[in-house]
Amino acid sequence: MDTLIVYYSRSGSTRTVAAALARGVGGTLRELVDANARANLFAAVIAALFRRSARLVSPDYDVAAYETVVVMTPVWAGNPTPAANTFLRTVNLTGKKVLIVALGESGDNLVTSSRLEKMARDRGGQVIGVHHIHGLNSSGKAGPSATAEELQNEGGHLADLLREPEDQES
């Protein structure tokens, strides 16, 4: 199974999970690089809140060589990042299995995952799952923050889930 892992990561937690997943399934990583570095967290959150798109650096929306596309994004103010919005508003996912992974400070965010799922389906994707991962607490608010080891374990868990159907066929 050829798997493409497309991700945006501002603080590194999504990148950590994506890398562990890629190692686990032998997948290809493709980072979404926002031309706006989003260094100002407040401005980044406002952009997500208004569901804006981003101008990506060297965008690549070609997923033709892959059977499965994993789209990973942090959740900002209950919304996907502008980079994820751009990718999902542009890519042709027709005939592709799509796994959505949302990382947030609060864990599950059903509104965001439902929005991401709809975006993937609107682009022709067959959504095979939506997963929420508790990520880093980068807002400065009190609350737990995932460790690098926990994030790597989450990536390994996702790899196990993607490999499971293949293992059952053997």
Q: How many discrete domains?
A: 1
Oligomer: single chain
Strands, count? 6
User: What is the typical, i.e. mean, pLDDT?
Assistant: 85
CATH architecture: 3-Layer(aba) Sandwich
- Uncertain stretches: none
Shape: globular
Q: What name does the CATH topology carry?
A: Rossmann fold
Question: What is the number of helices?
Answer: 5
The secondary-structure element order is EHEHEEHEHEH
Tell me the CATH superfamily. Answer: Flavodoxin domain
Report how far apart the termini are: 13 Å
Q: Report the sheet-strand fraction.
A: 15-25%
Largest sheet, described in full?
6 strands, mixed
- Class per helix and strand makeup: alpha/beta
Helix content: 25-40%
Any overview of this molecule?
The protein has 170 residues and is of the alpha/beta class. The protein has one domain (3-169): Rossmann fold (3-Layer(aba) Sandwich). It is built from 5 helices and 6 strands; from the N terminus they run E-H-E-H-E-E-H-E-H-E-H. It has helices at 13-25, 41-49, 82-90, 110-122, 148-169; strands at residues 3-7, 28-31, 68-76, 79-80, 97-104, 126-134. Strands 1, 2, 3, 4, 5 and 6 form a 6-stranded mixed β-sheet that branches.
